[in-house]
Amino acid sequence: MLLNFVALLVGLTVLVIAADKFVVGTASIARKFGIPPLLIGLTIVGLGTSAPEILVSAIASFQGNPGLAVGNALGSNIANIGLILGITALISPLAFKSDLLKRELPILMGVSLICYFMAFDGLNKVDGILMLLMLFAFLFWLIHSARKQRLNHSIVDPLEQEVLNEMPGDVPEKTAWLFFAVGLVGLLLSSQLLVWAAVNIAESFGVSDLVIGLTIVALGTSLPELAASISSVLKKEDDLAVGNIIGSNMYNLLAVYSLPGLIAPGAVAESVISRDFPVMLGLTGFLFILGYGFLNKVGKINRWEGGGLVLVFCSYQWIVYKSAMI
Q1: pTM to 2 decimals?
Q2: What CATH number is associated with residue 247?
Q3: Distance between CA 319 and CA 283 in Å, rounded?
Q4: Looking at the 3D structure of the chain, how many domains does it have?
């Protein structure tokens, strides 16, 4: 048992470090090819920070543990909003200034609802393909929006400058490719180790791999987003902190949640439909309301609301724990 927990800790640690190197390497390579910073921040970096969830869910699905993959996708989204945005807002209230982010919020809400309804009759390959098509459509929309923003010099979205500030410095090309390769290999190996340890722990405690995916694995694979959001808010880059979460949640649904359907089609646990999805939808809806300023007249998350998000996350984790012990 001790070996499994050590392996889990090592896997999570290497996963976080590898994800950071992978993002730096990928973003630096993209800049070498002349890709605009806003486009890199919205697409490449977003996908890079979701790489841990993608690889963990892919490996889990291939190994016959789709519950862990589903739990990782939904649990990460719940952790991103409830824990990460909550903690970030407690450190410093978050203001939504970017029009681009506000346009992303209803898309995220719509995608979340579509994925929820897909779960009722299980996940199959058609569902997986549809989610990937939605991912490509979303990326196309992001690229179109970024290009339009770049051409319209009269309107400067606050997110663009924040992304530019966070872009890696002038990394030598060889170093960038080394970071990319080392990060990718590290992600693959640590994901494999993480899944192995998580499944063993689940079997030892007699709980489902879904529960482990919703809790330990989801929290661990969300650590890159936690680090990125806290770093952004300390630099007064509120839109970037929120943008990291919105982008990550979109990729978790369309790139991560689609994998069980594509690789290991089957029924979705009843608890996912009755407990986990409703919590995720509730948090996503609350983020939508806060982002558009329906409560404060100005899009923001204050400290009280951040504390409420953390409380919801902790309550949810307690419910999952209690249900696993029955």
Answers
A1: 0.86
A2: 1.20.1420.30
A3: 16
A4: 1
